[in-house]
Amino acid sequence: MGLQENLAAAKQAIAYVASKMDIGASNQIDMYRVWALDEKSLFTMKNQCVGQVRSQVTASDWPGILSQATTAAERLGCGNCGEQSAIAFKFLERMGIRPIEFCQRSLDGHQFVMIGRSPKATVDNISTWGTDAVICDPWDRMQAYPAAQIQVKQFGTGKKDAYALHWLD
Question: pLDDT tens across 123-154, in order?
């Protein structure tokens, strides 16, 4: 698949994740929900929900972790970057999108999905990821963008990071 198809798939996955996040992330505030609860109560509720999701993930292998996180986060309507990315990953997997990878930044543990990375790529050299590679990041402002833009989109212009990638074949 090419860049435009990968971007379209990422946007579909993000829309799907958004439709499942009734409560959302415990580490983000949703302004449209603030009217219902004071900020402290909102964060308490979200933290409890994400804690419930994580307590239901007992697998030790990546396929099991992603499946269990997806099931729990969809059912409970909450999740941080990892849970939201797991939902996106499983959605893309069901769509038959390949290659897809569940990724984690080594700097801070932020998790997201990559679509279409070149099989000849090296993890620490973004320029080898390929022109069709796309980042799908439902937690980070519902972003889908070419992977070549990852440094600017995730760090601004000054920072560099190494990536630890986890993927299913």
Answer: 778 889 999 999 999 998 788 999 999 877 87
